[in-house]
Amino acid sequence: MLRRLIPSVRLTLQVPKATTTAVRSNSGNVYEPDYLESLKPKFPQYDSLNVQIKGYDYPQLESYQRFLHGVAEYLDLDVSECYALPPQQTQVQRLRPNSTVIESEYKLTTYERNLQLNNVDAPVYPQFLRLAQAALPEGVSLRVQEHTDDCEERRYVPDKELLDLKDELERMGGPTTSRKK
C-alpha cells in the first residue's frame, strides 16, 4: 500500500521546472560572472555568536558543552572556538534570624564555558536554541549574544608577574628610550 502511495506523492510534490533563458541580470556588474549571485547565502546570517554557559558543577558543565558542540556540528554550524574562563569565587554567609551571628558560610565557585559560532543562518539559529534549551541541565544558565570585543578581552587573564615587573620599572624611573653606544 505504501509503495503505491509513494509514486503519487512524488508526482504531487514535483514542481515544474522553469525555462532558462540567456538573459543577463542587471543587478550585478558587467564584468562579474553570473554564478557569483548563486554563491551568496540564501538566508541572512549572524556573523559571530557567543554561547555562554555558567554553572556550579564543573563536570556537568563540561558534559553540556560537549553536547552543544555536537549539536552545532550536527546542524552544520561553524564552531570556531570553545574556551573556558577562570572560575569566580563567591562567599555566601547565612545569618541567624534577627541577629548578626553567622549561622553558616558557603564558598561557591561559578564556572563558565563559551562556544563561538560563526556564520549562523537565521533559520538554523532557532533550532539550535530550542535544542540547547530543551537539554539545559538544572543549575546551568545559558546566554547567547553577538560576539563583541568585550567578550574577547574577558577571555585573557592578565599575567600578575608581568604587571608587577612593569610597576617596579615605573617606580625606578621608567624605561629609557635612548641607547648607549
Task: List its traits.
181 residues, alpha+beta, Alpha-Beta Plaits, 4-stranded antiparallel β-sheet, 6 helices, 4 strands
Describe the structure.
The chain is an alpha+beta fold. The protein has a domain at 52-112 and 120-155: Alpha-Beta Plaits (2-Layer Sandwich). The chain is 35% helix and 31% strand. It has six helices and four strands. It has helices spanning 2-13, 35-39, 58-74, 124-134, 149-155, 160-171; strands at residues 45-55, 78-95, 102-121, 140-146. It has a four-stranded antiparallel β-sheet, with helices on both faces. Strand 2 and strand 3 (102-121) form a beta hairpin. One of its GO terms (cellular component) is ribonucleoprotein complex.
**Largest β-sheet summary:** 4 strands, antiparallel
Q: State the distance separating the first and last CA atoms.
A: 96 Å
Across the major sheet, the strand order is 2-3-1-4
Please give the CATH class of the domain at 52-112 and 120-155: Alpha Beta
Give the uncertain stretches in residue-range form. Answer: 8-13, 15-24
State the secondary-structure class. alpha+beta
Topology pattern, helix = H, strand = E: HHEHEEHEHH
Quick recap:
By secondary structure, the chain is an alpha+beta fold.
Indicate the topology.
Elements: H1 2-13, H2 35-39, E1 45-55, H3 58-74, E2 78-95, E3 102-121, H4 124-134, E4 140-146, H5 149-155, H6 160-171
